Amino acid sequence: MSNGGAAVPGLSGNTHLIDRLPMVRGRLSAAAPLAGVTWFRVGGPAEVMFRPADVADLAEFLAKCPADVAVTVIGVASNLLVRDGGVPGVVVRLGGAFAQVGLDGMTVTAGAGALDLNVALAARQAGVAGLEFLSGIPGTIGGALRMNAGAFERELADVLVSAEVVDRAGRRFTVPAAELGLSYRRCAAPKDWIFVGAMLRGEPGVAAEIGARIDDIARRRAETQPVRARTGGSTFANPPGHRAWELIDRAGCRGLTIGGAQMSDKHCNFMLNLGNATAAELEALGEEVRRRVLEHSGVELSWEIKRIGVTAGGNSEGEYMI
């Protein structure tokens, strides 16, 4: 398709980034809103949004994209905070072509855009056990790879065989799980790798029993987490030897509110948009919780939610997802 559109104010000045980008078979959109696709429902626009038609389209785009253009990848944005000033450069969103799930015996292949829940359900239907925990992770396989996501005493590293990758130069390759440096909520893969798929290994099971375990996970989540709220999942990772929610509770932060942002009364490691929060308020609340926990217990919490983009004033401190 042809490129076109205006620049995002405050990101690239008067230049039109979209006019510098290569032609694609997918879709390029300038000043693409992001708030509506994030679970928090906050944040500014992407300077350019790219929805690749398939892996080949993504690889060709990356090979030809100017080296000075930042590339950020998002999935369903369930564990993501987009700052109010938006995201400079190109935001890649992997759509339906990356959401396929296939099974061959006890091996499950899944695109990076496949919902973790859908992978668990496909495995259940085929009588493949061991992947039920994925149903408790509200995200995609791509996001699970980037942070070694986990829930209910299991994590992706327990079932991952290999990952399919495209790097910033557009090269495609397969990486064994052992070479990804997976540890608690961490993947040591280079930041410029884009995960496009994964191979997982399950074990023989009975569909009805697998389904019962998935139902139990759903019940436990509903009982302990604000699953119907505007939230980003677990805000902070558990520090070694501690549970983040206990540290937050002991520091008096359960229900703590800044503007339209609040630490949940139901699960105080979940941060909520009460309806009118800004990304700045959510991030400020998280930083205040970190400050109070450090002051109370001497433990420094690390963000599990990924923060991307620039503030309304143009500050870009924090983390980027590449």
Question: What are the SSEs and their pairings?
Answer:
Layout: E1 27-32, E2 46-51, H1 55-64, E3 71-74, E4 80-82, E5 87-93, E6 101-104, E7 107-111, H2 116-125, E8 128-129, H3 141-147, E9 150-151, E10 154-155, E11 160-166, E12 172-176, E13 194-201, E14 203-204, H4 207-224, E15 230-234, H5 244-250, E16 257-258, E17 261-263, E18 270-273, H6 279-297, E19 306-308
Parallel strand pairs: 2-5, 3-5, 4-19
Antiparallel strand pairs: 1-2, 6-7, 7-13, 8-14, 9-10, 11-12, 11-13, 15-18, 16-17, 17-18
What does this structure look like?
It is a single chain. By secondary structure, the chain is of the alpha+beta class. The chain folds into 3 domains: 17-96, Uridine Diphospho-n-acetylenolpyruvylglucosamine Reductase, domain 2, CATH 3.30.43; 98-210, 2-Layer Sandwich (Uridine Diphospho-n-acetylenolpyruvylglucosamine Reductase, domain 3); 228-308, UDP-N-acetylenolpyruvoylglucosamine reductase, C-terminal domain (Uridine Diphospho-n-acetylenolpyruvylglucosamine Reductase, domain 1, Alpha-Beta Complex). 22% of the residues lie in helices and 25% in strands. The chain has 6 helices and 19 strands. The protein has helices at residues 55-64, 116-125, 141-147, 207-224, 244-250, 279-297, and strands spanning 27-32, 46-51, 71-74, 80-82, 87-93, 101-104, 107-111, 128-129, 150-151, 154-155, 160-166, 172-176, 194-201, 203-204, 230-234, 257-258, 261-263, 270-273, 306-308. The strands form 6 sheets. The protein has a 5-stranded antiparallel sheet with strand order 6-7-13-11-12. A 4-stranded mixed sheet has the order 1-2-5-3, with no helix packed on it. Helix 2 packs antiparallel against helix 4 (207-224). The longest helix is centred in the C-terminal third of the chain and has 19 residues, at 279-297. The two termini are 24 Å apart.
